[in-house]
Predict the structure.
Amino acid sequence: MNILTLLIVIPVLTITGILFTKDLKGARLVSAIGMTAQLVVAAILVFMYLGARKAGVTDEMLFTADYMWFKTLNIRYAIGVDGIAVAMIALTAVVVFAGIFASWEMEFLSREFFISLILLATGVFGFFISLDLFTMFLFYEVAVIPMYLLIGIWGSGPKESSAMKLTLMLMGGSALLMVGIFGIYFNSAPDGGPLTFHIIEISKIQIPVEAQRFFFPFTFVGFGILGALFPFHTWSPDGHASAPTAVSMLHAGVLMKLGGYGAFRVAMFLMPEAAHEMAWIFIILTSISVVYGAFGAIWQKDLKYINAYSSVSHCGLVLFALLMMNETAMDGGIIQMISHGLMTALFFALIGMIYGRTHTRNIYEMGGLMKVIPILSVVYVIAGLASLGLPGLSGFVAEMTVFVGAFQHTDVFHRVVTILAASSIVITAVYILRVVGILLFGPVKDPHFEHLEDAQWYEKLSMYTLVIAIAGIGIAPLWLSNTILDSLKPIVEKLAQVAF
Amino acid sequence: MNIGQFIMMRHELLLTAVALIILIAEIFTADNSKKKLIPFSIGLFALVTILGFLPVQEGTLFGGSYQGSHLAALMKNVLNIGVLIIFLQAEGWLRRDENADRISEYFLLTISTLIGMNFMISAGDFLIFYVGLETATIPIAALAAYDRIRSRSAEAGIKLILSSALSSGVLLFGLSLIYGAMGSIYFADVAQTVTANSMVALGFIFFVSGMGFKISLVPFHFWTADVYEGAPVNVTSYLSVISKGAASFIFAIILFTVFKTLTEMWKPVIYTLAVFTMTIGNLFALRQQNLKRFLAFSSIAQAGFILLGILGANDLGMTAIVYFVLIYVFTNLGAFGVVEAISNASGVETIKGYNGLYKTNPKLSLLMTLALFSLAGIPPVAGFFGKFFLFTSAASSGYYILVLIAVLNATISLYYYLLVVRAMFIEKSDNPVPAFKSSPYMRVALLLCVAGIFAVGFASVIFDSIREISQNFMF
C-alpha cells in the first residue's frame, strides 16, 4: 500500500478500534497506539522523502498514486507529496500525538471525544496528501465539521455560540472555495480536452486571465478565512478560547495551516497572474492581521484569548510571507506555519494543564506558578520565547526568513508593510513577557495553589514532544529550510514567469 | 404491437398486480388478523422492487403515449426503493389498534400514487402525464387525512386536495394553451415545432406554476408546512421524498426534452425560482420548532438545490438530479425515520423535546446526525456528493453566482441542522425521551438508510452509470 494512503487508513482503523472500546481507558489506549503508529509512519515518510531527494529524484511530487474515482467527471483519488506537504504531515502527526496525551483524562463521553478528534486529524492528513482538488476539498470539510461537536460538547465558556460561529464562518469560507474550485475545474482545459481537478496537471496549463481575476479572490479568501485573514478572523479567538485543550492545539496548530497551505498551493500556484495583480489587497489585509492580532493579545486577560489573538497575528504572518512571492519569504512563511503550529500547540497544551489545576484562566487570579509547578512553568517560558522569536528556537528562524525575504522587495509599498509587520515582533515580546511576569513570577496569589501537582507523565510526554520539535527546528533549521526550498521552486518559478 | 412489448411497462403492471393482490388478500383475511397484511404487503413490494432492477427494453407504446427508457426505469427504481423504506417504517404505526381496520387502505393508496408517478415519468404526451399526475396526487390527500380522528390530519388532507386541485387546474390550463398553440399533445411533436410565441410562453408559465405547486417551489409552497405538520409522519415523509422526487424527475424530463429549444426562455425563470426557493425555504426553516415543519421547510430548500441541476440543462444536470434524489431518499427517510420512531414511542415531535436524546438513545441520535449532515452536504456522507454534483452541473453552464448563493444557503441550512444536533448532544434535559427499542422493521429501514448514506457517495460506479444512462437519454 502507498505510504500516503496509510496515513488515512491508520486513523480510520483507530476510529474503528475506539468503537469497540468501553470506557476512557480503552479509548485513550487505542488512540495513543493509533497516533503513535501515525507518528512513526510520518517519521518514516520524512526519511523516505529525504532519501529519495538525496538519491536525485527530481519529480515534483513523490510517492504518487492515482486512481480514477468518478470517471465521467475525471475526479481522481490522486495523492503525492513534496517537501512542504511532508513537513506539514510531520507537524500534524506530532501535534495529534501530543493532543492525545493532553486529553488523557477526558472523562466525559471519552470515546466520542477521541473519535471526533481523530476524525478531524484524518481530514487534515487527507488534505495534505491530496493532489486532486475534489478530494482535497472533501478532506477539508471532513476536518472542519467535527469541530462543532468538539467545541460544542467538550468546550467551556460560551461554547455553543463559539462552536456555531466557528463552524458557520468556516463553512462560509468553504462556500467561496467551492466556487473557486469550480472555476478552476471548468477552465482547466482552455484548449479542449478533458477537464481535470488535478493540481499538477492544471499547473501545467494557463487558466485564462479573465477567469483568474474572477476566481482568485474566491479561492484565496476561502482559504484565507481558515487562515484567520482579517477581517474574517473573528471565529478564531472565540473558537479557540471555548475549545477543549486538544482541539485548540489541533485547530490552531494544524487546521489553520490548511488555510495557508491551500492559499499558495491552490490559489496562487494555479492562478499566478491574478495573484500578482491582487496581492496588494491581501498584503494590506494580512499586515492588519499581524499587527491587529498582536495588539489584540495585549489587552486580554484570559490565557486562551491571548494565545488565540497571537495565533491570528502569527497566521497572518504566514499569509503575508506567502504573498511576498519570493523564495526566501515563502520559505519563511512555511517554516512559520510549522513553527507556529508546534509552539501554539504547546501553548494551548500548557494552558489546558494549568487550567486543569487552577480552574481559572484569568492571569490576574494567578501568580507565582514557577514556585509551585516549576516544570509546566519552565516549558511555558520556552514556548513564550519561541513565540517572540528567540534565536535557537523555531520562531526566530521563521520570522527572520520572512522579513529578510519581504525586504528584498525594493518598492515603497512592500517596504512599508514589511516594517509595519515587523513591528509586531516588539508587540509580541510585550504580551508574552507580560503574561510570563504576571503568571509565573511574583507571590502565589491563591493559597490553594500551594498544593498544586506538577506535570504527570502523560503531560510531560505531550509537552516534551513539542519542545523537542521546536528546539530541533531552531537549532538545525537548514534541513527543513532546504527541503521546503526544493519544493518551492516550481511554485516560485511559476509565479515569477508572470511577474511584472 | 404484440403482447410481449407490454413487458416494457413492467413497473406499472407489477404495481397494479400488487395492489390487486392486496385488495383480494384484504377480503380473505378475518377482521382480527388484519395485521398479517403488513408483512405480506411489505414482502410483496420488496419483491417488486427487486424485479424492477431486471434489465428493461427501451421503446414506445400506444403510438408514443408511453415511453419506456432506461432513465425512466432507473427513476422508477429510485422511487421504489424509497417507498420500500417508507413501508418498513410504517409498520409500527400501522400496528396500532386505531389503524387496524384500514391497513390495506394505506398500502393501496400509496401504491396507487406510485403507479401514477410511474406513468408520469414514462409519459409520452401531456394527457398521460396529466392523468399520471392526478393519480399520484389524489390518493395522497386521502393518506394525509389517514388519522382522521385527529383534526390536524383531516385539515392536512383538505388543504392538500384543495391546493393540488388548484394547481392541477393551473397546470391543465397551461397545457391546453400549449396544445392550442402547437396542435399536438405528443412530447415528440411539441419538441420539434415549439417556438417561443406568446401563447406558448403563457402556457409554459402556467405549466411551471402547476409543477411548482407539486415540487413546492417558492412562491407556490404555502401548503407545504401545514400539510406536512398535520399529516402522519409516515405520509409526510412520502410527500417530501417520493412525491417531490417524482415531480422533480418529470419536471426535468419535460424541460430537457419538450422545451429543449426554449432553453433560453426558461432558464431565467428557473434561476429566479431557484434563488427564492433556496433562500426563503431556509429562512423559514430557521425558526421552526416542530420537526415536521422543520423538515418541510428544509425540503423546500432542497428542492431549490434540485433546480440547479435543471439549470445545468445537460446530461450532467440530469445525472445530478437523479443522483441527488437517490441520496435524498436515503437521507431524508433516515431523518424522517428517526422522527417517526420517536414520535411513535413517545409522541415527541419538537426540537426541544430532543434535548439530551444522545444520553438515552445514542444510536438514533447518531443516525439523525448523519442524516442531517448529509442533508447539509457535509462529507464524507452522501449528501456532499449529491450537492457537489448538482452545483457542478450549474457551474458547467456558467452559473457561478448562483452556485455561490446555493452554497451560502447550504451554510445557512447547516445552522438549523446543527440546532437539532445541539439539542441531541449538547443540551441537557430533565425528562428526555426515554430509551426504547424500535421494531425490527424500523431497524431494517434505518439500516438501509445508513447504508445508503454511506455507500452511495463513495461508490462512484453509481454516479457513473447514471451518467451513462442520462447521456443516452439526452442525445
Notes: The CA atoms of residues 23 and 105 of chain B lie 9 Å apart. The longest strand of chain B covers residues 59-61. The mean pLDDT of chain B is 88.
